[in-house]
Amino acid sequence: MSGATKQMIVSTNGLTKSYGGRTVLDSVDIRVPEGAIYGFIGANGAGKTTTLKILMGLISATSGEATVMGMERGSLPVKPLDGIAYLPDVPEINSWLTAREALLLFGSISGVDRNTAPDRAESLLKLVGLENTQLKVGGFSRGMKQRLGIAVALMGSPRLLILDEPTSALDPIGRAQVLEIIESLRGKTTVLFSSHLLADVQQVCSHVGILNRGQLLSQGTLEEVIASAPQPETSIRLSGQQASIVRARNLLERELPEITIQSQANSLQNAYTHLVKGRNS
Ligand code: ATP
Question: How is the chain split into domains, by residue range?
Fold first, then answer.
């Protein structure tokens, strides 16, 4: 194992998965550093859920290696792993429970100390903004279910939290709330989450990996991946009153040069488009 791999909480080498001769993951090498918020980006069918399921030990790989917190993944059965929590894209929580009851139930199933569980549940309810609701889960909105799902996943204080498309089915407010929760975990829990919503990933992630049709096209810190593609430039030519004001302030230039700025707003979108373009035609 190399020195670089040792600091990784998740790493894969040549991870490959085929279904009936069709390769859906093709020699993927993922590196998730401890402490990262890692955005695993890919379009529908890119292979994100397949990868996450292999990491969780829910399915086997066809070939290659995967290591999660120093334990091997990839072939079944896997050894149970403490300190990891997984939230599928549609979390199913018993509809007749309140949020508090769901947390306490999950806490007892996963071995959380009975004396500390109520306090832990209370602080998680606050973290996800559900401390005041008396509704049962059956009456929750999608966003509330997703936030409760994250709280349930955090009940056992995992070192690694894996979320499959946590914001994809939510409205803008629900998305913002879930992103805020993920942001609040920075420095405390390593988070690996899949998404095709690039603005969400750009907002909270320290690291990203771009998966396209089973192949990892780019990976690194957010800044590295953004820098791997030329950024679009926008030229602005001032005219009329704005130009007169700028001329009056500068005094030196009678003719104003065109001003060129680089937009950072959609830079991950730009890098993604640049990397994927031409590969999917
Ligand atoms: P989405 O965002 O739509 O969930 P994804 O990136 O998570 O997409 P996967 O669910 O990993 O993609 O699927 C990758 C490919 O593997 C898809 O083409 C899918 O049809 C195929 N696939 C997944 N599971 C199976 C299975 N059990 N049998 C056959 N093919 C499968």
Answer: 8-227
Candidates 40, 49, 54: which one to mutate for ligand 1, based on the most atoms within 8 Å of Cβ? 49
DSSP state of 77: S
Architecture of the CATH domain 8-227? 3-Layer(aba) Sandwich (3.40)
DSSP 219: E
Full-model pTM = 0.86
Whether residue 161 contacts residue 85, with contact meaning beta carbons closer than 8 Å, is answered with yes
**Residue whose C-alpha is closest to residue 143's, from 176, 121, 120, 191:** 176
Ligand 1 pocket mutation pick from 50, 56, 194 by most atoms within 8 angstroms of CB: 50
H or E segment to which residue 262 belongs: strand 259-262
DSSP state letter for 138:
G
Residue 281: how many CB atoms within 10 A of its CB?
A: 4
216-231 pLDDT, tens digit per residue, is 999 999 999 998 887 7
